[in-house]
Amino acid sequence: MTALPMTTEITVLGWSVVLLLVQVVLQAGTSADLGPGYLFSPRDERREPQNIVSRRLKRALDNLLETYPAFVALALALTITGKAGGSAATGAWIYLAARVVYVALYAAGVPVLRTLVWVASFVGLVMMLSRLLG
After folding, report:
1. Sequential pLDDT tens for the chain (134 residues)
2. CA–CA separation, 87 and 26 (whole Å)
């Protein structure tokens, strides 16, 4: 089996996994007020942490997970089809950079700018999709 090339999109995909892991650790690390009894339980009873930043980080993580499957699929499809590079690579970087900024803005409680940054991440996905289908 021939190895696929290490495209920009695959590199950004790797960095996006780093972002995902960081978001999971940040959110989990700020949920300590739920107590070890709850955190180590099957969590049959739904509880929200009292820490507002933890709740924001959870929503930011949930938001990432809404678009992440599309990003992963696009990065892989672009590489497999040989359409990686150009506007797709730019779109991948825009997606990742916007997602990083989004987490910080969401955790800080910044409303309107956060939404504009989310739109930028969406534009990155559209750039990737356009390259794949074009």
Report:
1. 788 789 999 999 999 999 999 999 999 899 888 888 887 888 888 888 899 999 999 999 999 999 999 999 999 999 999 999 999 999 999 999 999 999 999 999 999 999 999 999 999 999 999 999 99
2. 32
